[in-house]
Every structure is written in C-alpha cells, then in structure tokens.
Amino acid sequence: MKNIEFLIFFSIVFVLYTAINYYIFIRGYQVISQIQWAKSIYIPLYLVLYLSFLANIILIHKYPSFLSNQIAFIGNFWLAAILYLFLAVVLLDILRLINHFIPFFPAFVVNNYALTKQISGALIILTVFVTLFWGYKNANSPELKTIDIKIPRKTVKLDRLRIVAASDVHLRSLCSNNFSEKLASDINKLNPDIILFPGDLMDESIEPVIKFGLGEPLKQLKSKYGTYAITGNHEYIGGINQTTSYIESLGIKILRDEFILIDNEIYLIGREDRAIKQFAKMTRKSLKDIMSKVDKTKPLLLLDHQPFGLNEAQENGIDFQLSGHTHHGQLFPINFITNKIYEVSWGYLKKGNTQYYVSSGYGTWGPPVRTGNHPELLLINLYFEK
Fold this sequence. Notes:
By secondary structure, this protein is an alpha/beta fold. It has 13 helices and twelve strands. The termini are far apart.
C-alpha cells in the first residue's frame, strides 16, 4: 500500500513537473528559433536541467556521493528557477492575450516582434538569475530573532527560561559540515538553558546525512537542561525509525507524544507530527491524553511542528506553543498561499491566555533559496510571574 501511494504521488509530481518544464521550454525555444547556434546549446542544456531534479530523487537515496550532491544542487536550484520562469512566461502570455483583444503594445514591439521576444527573454533570464543569487545568499544568512514571552504562572526557582530554538533545519546532502558547525556554534554562543528543534531537523533522505556525518557537530551542543526535538513530516518521509535513531545518537532527546518536567518547574510537551497518519498509518495522541498526568498549575510549553488546530493548545491550558513547518512559503509569492492556509504562517499570535510563535525556519527544503522571508535562529526568553 505504501509503495502504491508513493507511486501515485511521484506520478502526479512527475506529470506536473514535466508539463511546466515543457511550457517553459516551448516558450524559450520560440524566442531563439531564428538563432541556430543558440538552439544547438539550448536543447541539450534544458534537457540536463530538466533531468537533474528527477535524477536527484533517485540518486540521493540509493547512491549518496559527491556526484549526487552536485546533481542535487543543480536540480534543486532548477526547481526554484522554473517557478520564476513559469510566472514570467505566464505574465507575458496574459499580456499577449489582452493585446490580442485590446491592442496596447507600442509600435516598436509590434514592428520588431522577434527582437522584442529576444530582449524580453534575456531580461527574464537575468532577473531570475539575480533573484536566485540573492535568495541563495539570504538562505545562508540566518538572522537571530529574540522573542520575549511573559507567562502568567509562577515558578519556585526560575524567573526566566532562556530557550534557543531552530525549526526546519533540514539537514541534507546540500548542507556542508560548515552548515551544522555554524548552527551548533551560534546556539552555544547564546548560552541557552535549553535547546529545542521543533521538527524537520532532518530532510527526506537520512543516508547522505549519515554517510557524510553532517549531524556530528550537533553533538557539541551545550545547555543547562539539554536538547530536545520533535518529529516533523520530513522525519517520517525519510523513514522514521532510522531518522529518529540517528537524531538521538547525536545526544538529542525526541519527545513523541510525551512530556518532561524541567527542573521540577516547567513542563515541556512534544507532539508527534501529523504525518504519522500518512506514513505510519497511526494516530497521534490527543493533547488532552498526553497531558492527563501533567500538573497544570506549572508553566506548560508545547512543541507541535505543524501549526494546525491552534485551538487545541488553548483549550488544554498551554501557555506557549512553538511551531514551524510553513517556511512562510520560502519562495515569494508562495507566502501569500501559506498566509491563507495557516492561522499564522510566521510570527507571534495570542489566543486567550495561550501564546504562539511560528518560525520561518532555519534551513530550506528543495531549493537552497529564500526569497519570501529570512531564515531565523530563535532566542526565546520566557519570563514567569514572581
């Protein structure tokens, strides 16, 4: 059954990916149709770019290597490129359609149509290149986001809990050791009381992460109360048992529909990701069941990867919920879509006495590019009533 579901999903992705690429290819070919030397380069180059993403899906799981890493880099970059190429070509086609019924193109365009197409094509390619270059630099420059949260509950010994959190790290073949070394170093510099990874610490395939030791620098994480994570959808996509075993081998405790009591003062509750139903054919526990033995007079902190059903935390007396998953769209203008899907796609929200923060994430999925927002490392200061 699982193989059938994967085959159906892959078939849909393949058809959609191929259709968009064909549309872009045809429009690009029309631009250079009168330039013979350009056609001899364009066709094989486009074929390589088209196949690179498909080859990456196959190679990265079965044959992780330096070569597969380079193919993955090209393929994932191309995924971002076709988004912007597709949007640009659709916009031009809409303008052409409007002009067909209501002529508004200037005489220069009408009288020099072939040249106009070539100039437009060159400007589109240049714009996409600059956008991706900036997005790549942005994706590799995470910002420190400081959040102060006041919890209306008392503790005996603590006035403040200093949390450092990084959601959606997505460790994968495109990440070098420098990526995880910088993450560990930046976290340790903040002298956290506790370190949290609210899901998707790993990406789809765990094999290259293990082979290249990409998670090893995380063994150097230091904090007063330890490092904790929850499952995200990508831990399930990559194979939940092997992935969680590897994460815990790094000294990171995974909370799977369970809770811990920190210093006999504060409850940290971690939920299984919703993907458990799709990939493991299981149902995660309700928050009420998880909290059946929790002393609700103490501060209650919740990690839940996907920010759906926020009312559940409010109904169960959670003081603060930390989520991720959305990437706030990652690539503009997808952030407009995530804003419609989620009650909060990125940032702070308060419902009743429950406060929420949804992170845009530290890493990237697919293209190593961010154009819709900045990646972030969170420093969360939780203050308690005295």
